[in-house]
Give the backbone structure.
Amino acid sequence: MSFLVVPSEFTRAGNTTHTGEKFPIPDDEKFSYGTAGFRFDAKKLPFLVFRCAYVASLRARQLNSAIGVMITASHNPEEDNGVKLVDPSGDMLNGQWEKYATEIVNASDAELPSAVAALEKQMSQIEKSFIARGLVQNARVVCGMDTRVTGPHLMSAASQGSALFSVRFENIGVVSTPILHYIVKSHNFPQFANPTLHGYYTAIKEAFMELYMETEEPEGSRYQPKVIVDCANGVGAPRFRDLMKEIPSDYLEVEFRNENGRLNHQCGADFVKIKQELPENFDGIQEPKSASFDGDADRLIYFRSKKGAEKPRAAELFDGDKIACLYAMYIQEQLKAYHETKPTYNIDMGIVQTAYANGASTRFIRDTLKMKPIIVKTGVKYLHEEASEFDIGIYFEANGHGTVVFSSHFDSIIRRHPQTLVPLRRLALFSRVINETVGDAFADLLAVEICLRHYGWSMDDWAEKLYRDVPSHQVKVDVAKREDFETTNAEQTLVKPIGLQEEIDKTVAKYKESRAFVRPSGTENIVRVYAEADTLENAIELGETLKKIVLKY
Ligand code: G16
């Protein structure tokens, strides 16, 4: 039996919110890990974060490494909070450990000691071999939080949870989710970067400034080195300000908006993407190039006011798909120049999307870039895994969450060797501007600016030279239980509730050039409807019709 001693405020029965209010969690209430960790009303979370941090500390001891705990509910409303666990490589938590975390979180107070003992028993053999080799000193839990008011109380729960077995706890304060991923990786791979906030800023800044010097703006360039950033009133505001203090404004000028208001309210990448609307404090005048972060700054969407739109405040989006295609063009161009030198080793590249990818982007990748896009389930963990199959794997969700990952083969032939060829130097630097541990709004923004400068493009050019989006519409549908909706086929076909998919198919068939699907969210208690059609009016009509059909079930 485990010696687990749980402070009463972090038991299910004694669960206590950040205001000191007791908010007990019934034994039969179940929590699932979801698309990106546990995410609920913050009142429910102190006991849950305590247990997750304990699981993280076990994982840290098992691997004798740093493990990350990020306290955030990202794009969700301010009242929610959540916890994401990060593996030693900086990637999302391993799937088997998601299951362990779910078991521990869902145990009743009475069941907890035996659930914990069972898990510890499995770990102890592995850990013993580390101890025998004197190797437990690297185990630590590194914890960050976003700007939510409930963050500090949950940080305290995490600190006490990971202290149960004396694992070192490091509170890195208010950071973006990608910064936490980066620092975790830096702890475990010291050659990657210094494992501090400043280490992150320095590494990204230096790579950006070097790559900037390697980039030649073409004659007649229409590129403008200025961007107005909607910070979603979240962590992007303080942390991107810190990073931009390191980069001279003649390289890139950033104007900050939405820094101190209500988190994700009428602003942020999720709002702009779903509503296709300008965020609060933007009026479309004198704002040639703008970009939105989400609450924890792991998503990036560029936008501008939509010309000639009937709807006031309509936004034209340069979303995750357009960013992925821009990166793909740039990388492909550098690789082409490299392969023309007939090198001993080829470098391959791939691109991964989800069903939300605009149909026009998928066609552009296939027909213009001559690449075969891979479509996977929603959730960056799935995209990351597929992209890791390539030497250079680009992955993006349409909602602006994505990055580029580079293989060890790429490292061995490019990143680790000083290169004389300009395209190779550019690729090596690009791989360092990008935060390959996870989608990072800051790093992605800097990489977009490099690509636009390289091509000499204004927003008009970016819009015209790639593809025009197929009209699309997304709706969130409030449902009693999202668990009643089950999908297959990379989440594009519903298998439950029985009969619903048939109705969807019949409705979609009534519209020209249409495509639609319905799936339960893994982060909110809603079902998402996505619809494409020949015109925006038809896409909206199709989406809203499907919403009504979903509500009947
Ligand atoms: C998270 C995930 C993303 C996912 C999004 C929405 O983003 O990391 O991969 O696309 O949730 O997921 P769902 O449609 O299941 O609600 P974030 O930025 O909220 O952490």
